[in-house]
Amino acid sequence: MLDYWVRLYRQYQRPIEQVVIFLKETTKDAVYTTQFIVGNTQHHYRVVRLWEQDSALLLTNQALLPFAALARTDSPTALLEKVAAQIDKIEEPEARRNISACVEVLAS
Question: Which of 58, 60, 72, 105 could, after both became Cys, cross-link 64 (CB 3.0–4.6 A)?
Fold first, then answer.
């Protein structure tokens, strides 16, 4: 993360907010680490664990629909049905196909 930050900052010299998104639930320490520290170097970044996110927020934006299938839920089947219903509302055929394919890949 630090290497990416340095490269981006060197090229664009703009504020950078780094976010790591973990897709599948795990108990590994890495998913709870929000900083890199070695000696005097400290680099902080934000971590999003999709399985902890509210699916309702992801269902409101068609670009986030593929991630909704990985969000917190008591009923994965019902959540997938909601995602499918939102996809059906997308009017542009190419966008509908692309988002549907992304959902299929991530949900499987």
Answer: 58
Nearest to 16 by CA among 28, 27, 30, 6: 6
Domain coverage including residue 42: 2-50
Task: Report how far residue 2's alpha carbon sits from residue 79's, in angstroms, rounded to the nearest whole number.
Answer: 36
- Rounded Cα gap, residues 3 and 52, in angstroms: 28
Q: What is the DSSP string of 1-15?
A: -HHHHHHHHHHH-S-
Count of structural domains, the chain: 2
Label residues 14-27 b or e (16+ Cβ within 10 Å = b).
eeeeeeeebeeeee
Positive/negative CA dihedral, 58, 104, 71, 33: negative
Instruction: Read off the pLDDT of residues 44-103 as tens digits, 9 standing for 90 and up.
Output: 999 999 999 999 999 999 999 999 999 999 999 999 999 999 999 999 999 999 999 999
